[in-house]
Amino acid sequence: MQNIGMKLWLESSWLSGNNQSYIDSLYKDFLNNSNSVEVDWRGLFDNISDCKEQLESCTKTNKNNLHFLERRAKSSSSDSIQAEKNIEPINLLNLINAFRCFGHQQASLDPLQLQKHKKIEALDIVYHGFKNTDLHNSFYISSFSLHAKQMTLIDIYSLLKKIYCGSIGAEFMHITDNHEKKWIQKKLELIDRNSLFSVTEKREFLKTLTAAEGLERYLGSRFPGAKRFSLEGGDALLIVINEIIHYSRKKDTHQVLLGMAHRGRLNVLVNVFGKKLQDLLNEFSGQTSVNLGSGDVKYHMGLSSNIQTADGVINISLGCNPSHLEIINPVVMGSARAHIDSFYQKDSNQVLPITIHGDAAIIGQGVVQETLNMSQVRGYQVGGTVRIVINNQVGFTTSNLQDARSSQYCTDIGKMIMAPIFHVMADDPEAVAFVTRLSLDFRYTFKRDVFIDLVCYRRHGHNEADEPSVTQPLMYQKIKTHPTVREIYAHHLESTQVINQNDAMEMVKTYRSKLDTGGCVNPMCRPKNTDLFDMSLLTNSNVNRQSQKHLSFSYLQKLAKKISIIPTTVVMQSRVKKIYTDRSCMATGNKPFDWGAAENLAYATILEQGISCRLSGEDVGRGTFFHRHAVIHDQSNGTLYIPLQHIKQGQGSFSVWDSVLSEEAVLAFEYGYAMASPHTLTIWEAQFGDFANAAQVVIDQFISSGEQKWGYQCGLVLFLPHGYEGQGPEHSSARLERYLQLCAENNIQVCVLSTPAQLYHILRLQAQNEVRRPLIIMSPKSLLRHPQAISSLDDLATGAFHSVIDEVDPIAYQSVRRVIFCTGKVYYDLLNKRRQNNQNDISIIRIEKLYPFPYQEIENILRRYNDVHDFIWCQEEPHNQGAWHVIQHPLREVLTSGSLLRYSGRPPSASPAVGHASMHHQQQKDLVSDALTIK
Q1: Domain count of the chain?
Q2: Strands (E), 543-628
């Protein structure tokens, strides 16, 4: 029964005096034999242990009635003393439940013992009505998941404190799924943690801690004061990662994808991934000589390795990430989903995503909320992510936790998705290992996220050049005298006779000797090739090396018909039905192709060749502007029909996902997906182009520079609706200028297309291209249905993508006095006005690909205009926006000597567009008139 139902029951009139004798009888029968009462009553009595909070909110009268019920059930026995020893009274259930709910607040989590616990009355025996005389009474404890069925109250209380108030603080009672809660209870209460780990495992824990501490001390002595974001204080992170690797391989996982913040990254790279120490030392000293693009700092870099475990080889990959730390989380999830879809037949057990967070960042950065919100959404599920927090108990230089967050724990954000949260003190390695295995078991069982809050400290400041005592004097006074976790655990193992006095020091010497060789210190690790860069790709101006393969007219016509004919069993909405009727006419040649039809046909040709496509974003199934309709909603039963999934057997997979209302996390997810699945055409569409503003960190730090920094190739496509139609400042500009400012070294492609055929051809090129580069398309809005923005089936069958499109009207080149360069929708405004004015002395040239700039194509066209020296760049955007400030420089390079290039467009503006339609139309009229007026 849900807790809300229990609350209603407790507050109902059933517990009134008139019903007490009847309920008393039922409850007594239930205690003797639970199956003797009806299912509904059994459920009520069974769940009393889960209703502590509801009990607190009940009226005093009803609580008194419950105690009366309990006393009556006891006294009705022939031997009340024996009953007292064998009956599990409600107040004992409440005591047990209180520890499950609130025990974590009294847990010993802070290694420094600086955090003071508030008194929790509900964890006091007296609070639940017990007296000192009850401490040695025995109780039957069927609802407490222990091996012993009968224990004294004092033993029960001691055991509860050990389980829930020791080095582990478990938060799980917020979970609404009762099965999950019961599962966690059993795992916490049934397992004897004292005998969980063998002597060999304990010695391995100490070796891991020795390696973690040894590397940091070695680097600190070699490079004092150099930034390395030391792991010291959180050394137990290596135990977590090693446990994940070996334990997940037992679960038949073959790949672990890891994303992490700076802290401890170098330690993880060396001690887990097997990065050669000499390579790291070279990076510190600046002596590295590799063929990189721009490269990145050492604590941003990743690595991929194969690890030999007792159960087989497992591949682990650490993703590169920027200083905007939490943005790596959706990238890792996207990569995991790509592997699940493309390589593991959608079996999420095969791939395990792990994200490692800082305590201030996980609660402070909004992308975490966006990422968690996606975790159980169909298009973005990965079977659960293990989320680890390196909880230094201080964010950056925050001097008071009250300044870091508004909640008690940094992991409270995990409660929004009902994730269990296990807080664990980092100075207790065995508790850390136990929590790691428990978390993995939960993830594999329930396919959901789980949090490990590794409560530790940082021995140095935010970085090694920082002086932390300036803002945390008391904390760092304590840290200076606090022993390391290796020292603490070594002493523990000596006292329990797991090792002798010399073993710990021998481990230190053995590890130091490995460091002195400068090689790989992890003998079970085989790092893969780390040189991901190919400088020839960075300097190759011909991004689309793949030749354009034409498809026959008859083949395209047949394919267009196939995806336009919908089974009669699918009841279509009337407007959608007309769209598909029109597409059938386009397939037969009776109507030209519009934007949506050409786009869907491009996907069909790609899928038919066995290449998969993934399309995501807000409203992408139908398209924000009611143009795509890749997904048809049956009007009779709400089921979905996707024509592109029914082309032929063995076709590529086609998935289209209406995303959550997020740009940053979703775009980062799609970037990770596209990078990890190079043979899938992956597309993200913004609902409006300027919505991508909310994902600027993804564009700046991954899409535009990932290849130059880290060697990552990614063929992600961005559709950004762009165009000035009087819809105001928030629905006009996709900020074309920002993308052009990011362009260098052939890093991305930026296109503004004007015909459906252009979209058809460039999508096919992108899907087949050997060199994977992001493609930014300023996609249209009004052009989706513009009567002139059309293409014939012949344009698709025999045409090709053109970076530049010359004049289309029959104008004599020798009579041309002015050439207008433009891109996008404004072309049609210029064309129509010129035709209306009969101005045959002006040519209009469309530049469809703005970057890489098509020098050769423009030079070839301009040979026809040798006598022209009057050139205009015309754009809809304000003077300080759009393409002008970037495009003018390459344009001047290709113009003949003595030529004049002038701007025509809106005046400079702080806002992307005006908010009044009348002002918009006047500005549009003026800029077109200015471009066409020869003085």
Answers
A1: 4
A2: 612-617
